[in-house]
């Protein structure tokens, strides 16, 4: 191991060590002072975030081509660290109110974030698998945090079983690709494919299995079945965290493996992407319409948004559109992340013990009782719908533009029409909050309110000046491998 | 022309700044909120007059253009490009006039959540002005969609009984049209290399099929907004449930955004297709005229009657636009202004009645003239203006449109114009029918005997509209002069294709 190797994984290492130490330190923190654990976890993520940023602009393979440091990884790692910080802000007050305040939450969150970061940095299929497990197993436990509530246990079990399946697919795919190329490092695989003379059938089946595994993680149709139950059963801050964290990690692997490393499979994979994207957008949005539980509704909405991102990736092999395709997907992950975390912050603030106030109709009167939270939720719902000038519009603008540029006009139209469907159920939340009277109460804790309102301000401000984020997403691919 | 200070930028900023100031005022200071909103809207109106003073009416070009880089990434730049020309200047003025009047009209009608109401109204003004000023398609789309949010809340929070249904329907209908327009905008931007409207004018080299699809994508968005028959069903709901000021702006300005969209995008971008489509659009316009008038006649609720009269009147506007000759187009633009003034005023008087009696059913009234003579006189002028009585504004617009339709090469089907003329008569039928029931005869209900006549604030609210109604009716020349060069320019663009049709 050289110094360069060590430095390239420095943020990941710091976070993992920090998490392990926190696990021990937490034992000495009294039960009523878990705020200290939360703060320690937050500062760990903050340090990690700073270390991640320092890697911007560099590009190197490390640990025998196992991991890579490039802007793509840095971009996503930054997103993961920030997601972790916001999730802590949201969770602290929520866990108190639900009387499930446990130090383990923060430790497991750190472990999961480190897994996600490893996923974005992985340059070897074995690393991808390890990262997948490192990010998923803490999430299974976090989903069960609200036990003895049966929904929470059910969610955890479902997530675990289907997640294990997904991991199995990834592993099997890796094995087949190894069989075809005698390698698991992406760089070597690309070199072997370019050299030619391989068993293409084996390769394509392997790649297909990887796609299945990643699709589970990003919740793309037809591998989305677990999402509504898990999103509904898991504690709301955990759902918020996984809605963006696990999805972005899944896309990180998907983009890294398929678009950056293996564009030569595009003839087979691109039509698959197109069909999956169309199905995901349609199923997600149509199913969300009939949901009366807000957590289930947002679960289907998260499926739909995975479809939008997939749509952008469809033209990835068209050289004219490839860079934009990946950049718009990255951009949308940030867009979706900010909006989704915000919405889950509001849900966490409104939720009561034993799953009270989770129906969409329970939001009646929120506009009057909690104008700030309601205004923030309005911003998030409109951003999800894609109404300008909010950030969600620019995310979709870039996605649809990419699809049209790549020649997939029909796909873009499906995306636009399903956005129209989505307007129906997002508006319903606003209707409840402002147009109907009610007596709903929400948390007044400063952390959760600051998280929600702060994210809403970001969604609005970046929406007014989106250029910076666009450029950042484009630069994230400037020095990518492949 | 370059000036150090551009009136258009200031015009866009004023309502935005006013909205921010409102935000700082405590919600309990209702009168202060009202005054700030009114002063803001009047300042915006003043700025629009300044713009008018700077405007060179002899030029067909875009004027006071500002073009700032906004997003320059992935090859095709999106610019903050605004400007005003003969097609849009009257719309800008109409917006600033009607916003001020609407705010004045809500002085006592809106008592709850005054702060939010006024703030949404000013935001709405930013959106509407932006739609008329934007010269970049993406910027246009941003403003176009943005107007949905304040209007949605204005209907949903301050609306009538079925406000939720109306608000959601309004939002979804408009969005249904505009999503396909976004696809068309993106397609044009990506494959023609620019989002700038002036640069895109008269696009050559499109396959006929593609051009048709793009034309229809734009047309659908605008036809829903206008609204053209049979896409009008959101309009009666939204109009009836909206608060008075909301109805005024909805009828006065928001519908004009649709008609303006045809003028700004469909005709100059796809002249050939526009000529081919003209007979069909003219047909739908005439169906709208007759259908709107017939439905209006059947209404028992005065506000619904006015709402359906909008469908009918906007049919004239669309007929004028698709006559595709100078007379038709000029008449259409003038009629857009006229409809804004007359129908705006009609909604105001309906609002005044409703504020007094909390009902809008014709059967609850009768003989109002005897109780409220001043109000009766004002109402008569407004109703006659909407009917199209010579000497008032409606006549000038409709007459010009019909002349345009008779002589139109593009429509080339005299029956269309004849049927439209029947629509003018029908307007007289349903409006005078309403007037007779509500104002004439003896006072049939005891509750109406003690009604107070209009107060000074209400007279001031209606006065500017009446003045404009008379001005346009008697001396419309300055209004035509403002738009003529731009309209002639537009017609010249289409001339080669018109020759081909002949």
Strand tally of chain B is 2
Quantity of strands of chain A, as a count? 2
Cα-atom Rg of chain A, whole angstroms? 21 Å
Secondary structural class of chain B: mainly alpha
Largest sheet of chain B: 2 strands, antiparallel
What is the tally of helical segments of chain A?
A: 20
Strand order of the largest sheet of chain A: 1-2
Care to describe what's here?
The complex is a heterodimer of chains A (482) and B (502). Chain A has 482 residues and is an all-alpha fold. Chain A is 76% helix and 1% strand. A two-stranded antiparallel ribbon of chain A has the order 1-2. In chain A, strand 1 and strand 2 form a beta hairpin. In chain A, helix 5 packs parallel to helix 11. The longest helix of chain A has 32 residues. The model of chain B has no long low-confidence stretch (mean pLDDT 88). A two-stranded antiparallel ribbon of chain B has the order 1-2. Chain B is mostly helical. At the A-B interface, helix 17, helix 18 and helix 20 of A face helix 5, helix 6 and helix 7 of B.
Features:
heterodimer, A: 482 residues, mainly alpha, two-stranded antiparallel sheet, 20 helices, 76% helix, B: 502 residues, two-stranded antiparallel ribbon, globular
């Amino acid at each position: 191991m050289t110094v360069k190797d060590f430095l390239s994984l420095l943020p990941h290492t710091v976070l993992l060590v920090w998490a392990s130490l926190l696990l021990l330190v937490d034992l000495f923190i009294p039960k009523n002072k878990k705020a200290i654990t939360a703060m320690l976890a937050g500062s760990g993520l903050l340090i990690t975030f700073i270390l991640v940023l320092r890697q911007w602009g560099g590009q190197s393979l490390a640990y025998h081509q196992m991991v890579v440091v490039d802007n793509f990884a840095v971009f996503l790692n930054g997103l993961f660290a920030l997601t972790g910080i916001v999730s802590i802000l949201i969770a602290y007050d929520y866990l108190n109110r639900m009387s499930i305040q446990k130090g383990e939450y923060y430790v497991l969150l750190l472990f999961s974030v480190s897994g996600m970061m490893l996923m974005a940095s992985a340059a070897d299929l074995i690393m991808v698998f390890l990262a997948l497990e490192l990010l998923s197993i803490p999430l299974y436990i976090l989903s069960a945090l609200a036990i003895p509530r049966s929904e929470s246990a059910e969610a955890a079990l479902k997530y675990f079983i289907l997640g294990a399946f997904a991991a199995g697919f990834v592993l099997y795919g890796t094995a087949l690709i190894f069989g075809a190329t005698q390698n698991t490092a992406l760089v070597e695989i690309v070199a072997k494919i370019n050299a030619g003379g391989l068993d293409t059938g084996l390769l394509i089946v392997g790649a297909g299995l990887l796609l299945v595994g990643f699709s589970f993680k990003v919740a793309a149709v037809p591998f989305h079945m677990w999402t509504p139950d898990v999103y509904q059963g898991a504690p709301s801050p955990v759902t918020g965290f996984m809605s963006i964290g696990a999805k972005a990690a899944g896309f990180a692997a998907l983009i890294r493996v398929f678009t950056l490393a293996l564009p030569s499979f595009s003839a087979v994979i691109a039509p698959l992407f197109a069909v999956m994207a169309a199905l995901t957008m349609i199923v997600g949005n149509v199913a969300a319409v009939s949901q009366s539980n807000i957590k289930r509704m947002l679960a289907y909405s998260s499926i739909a948004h995975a479809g939008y991102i997939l749509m952008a990736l469809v033209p990835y092999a068209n050289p004219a559109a490839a860079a934009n395709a990946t950049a718009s997907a990255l951009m949308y992950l940030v867009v979706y992340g900010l909006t989704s975390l915000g919405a889950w912050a509001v849900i966490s603030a409104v939720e009561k013990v034993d799953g009270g106030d989770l129906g969409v109709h329970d939001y009646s009167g929120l506009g009057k009782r909690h104008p700030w939270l309601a205004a923030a939720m309005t911003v998030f719902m409109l951003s999800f719908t894609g109404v300008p000038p909010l950030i969600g519009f620019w995310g979709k603008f870039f996605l649809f533009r990419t699809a049209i540029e790549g020649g997939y006009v029909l796909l873009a139209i499906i995306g636009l029409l399903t956005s129209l469907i989505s307007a129906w159920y997002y508006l319903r939340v606003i209707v409840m909050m402002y147009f109907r009277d009610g007596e709903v109460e929400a948390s007044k804790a400063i952390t959760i309110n600051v998280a929600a309102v702060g994210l809403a301000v970001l969604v609005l401000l970046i929406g007014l000046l989106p250029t910076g984020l666009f450029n950042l997403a484009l630069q994230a691919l400037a020095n990518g491998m492949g | 022309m370059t000036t150090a200070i551009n009136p258009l930028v200031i015009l866009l900023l004023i309502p935005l700044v006013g909205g921010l100031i409102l935000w700082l005022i405590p919600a309990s200071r209702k009168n202060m909120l009202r005054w700030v909103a009114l002063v803001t809207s009047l300042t915006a109106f003043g700025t629009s007059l300044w713009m008018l003073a700077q405007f060179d009416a002899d030029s067909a070009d875009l004027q006071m253009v500002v073009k700032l880089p906004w997003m320059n990434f992935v090859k095709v730049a999106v610019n903050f490009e605004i400007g005003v020309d003969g097609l849009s200047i009257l719309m800008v003025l109409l917006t600033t006039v009607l916003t001020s009047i609407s705010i004045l009209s809500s002085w006592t009608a809106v008592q709850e959540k005054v702060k939010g109401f006024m703030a949404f109204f000013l935001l709405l003004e930013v959106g509407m002005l932006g739609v008329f000023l934007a010269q970049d398609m993406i910027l246009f789309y941003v403003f176009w969609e943005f107007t949905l949010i304040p209007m949605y809340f204005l209907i949903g929070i301050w609306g009538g009984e079925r406000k939720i249904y109306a608000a959601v329907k309004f939002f979804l209908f408009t969005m249904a049209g505009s999503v396909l327009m976004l696809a068309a905008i993106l397609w044009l931007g990506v494959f023609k290399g620019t989002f700038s409207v002036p640069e895109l004018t008269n696009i050559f080299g499109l396959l006929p099929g593609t051009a048709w699809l793009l034309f229809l994508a734009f047309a659908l968005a605008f036809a829903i907004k206008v609204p053209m028959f049979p896409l009008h069903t959101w309009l009666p709901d939204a109009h009836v449930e909206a608060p008075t000021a909301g109805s005024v702006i909805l009828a006065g300005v928001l519908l004009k955004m649709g008609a303006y969209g045809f003028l700004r995008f469909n005709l100059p971008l796809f002249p050939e297709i526009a000529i081919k489509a003209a007979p069909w659009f003219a047909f739908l316009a005439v169906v709208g005229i007759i259908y709107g008038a017939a439905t209006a006649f059947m209404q028992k609720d005065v506000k619904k009657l006015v709402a359906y009269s909008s469908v009918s009147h906007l049919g004239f506007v669309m007929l004028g636009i698709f006559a595709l000759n100078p007379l038709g187009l000029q008449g259409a633009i003038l009629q857009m202004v006229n409809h804004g003034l007359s129908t705006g005023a009609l909604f105001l008087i309906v609002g005044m009645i409703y504020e007094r009696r909390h009902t809008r059913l014709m059967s609850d009234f009768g003989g109002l003239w005897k109780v409220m003579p001043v109000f009766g006189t004002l109402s008569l002028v407004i109703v006659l203006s909407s009917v199209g009585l010579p000497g008032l504004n409606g006549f000038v617009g409709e007459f010009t449109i019909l002349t345009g339709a008779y002589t139109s090469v593009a429509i080339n089907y005299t029956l269309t114009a004849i049927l439209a003329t029947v629509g003018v008569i029908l307007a007289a039928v349903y409006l005078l029918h309403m007037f007779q029931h509500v104002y004439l005869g003896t006072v049939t209900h005891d509750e109406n005997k003690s009604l107070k006549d209009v107060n000074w604030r209400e007279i001031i609210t209606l006065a500017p509209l009446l003045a404009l109604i008379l001005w346009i009716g008697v001396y419309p020349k300055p209004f035509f002069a403002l738009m003529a060069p731009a309209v002639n320019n537009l017609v010249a663009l289409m001339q080669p294709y018109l020759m081909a049709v002949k």
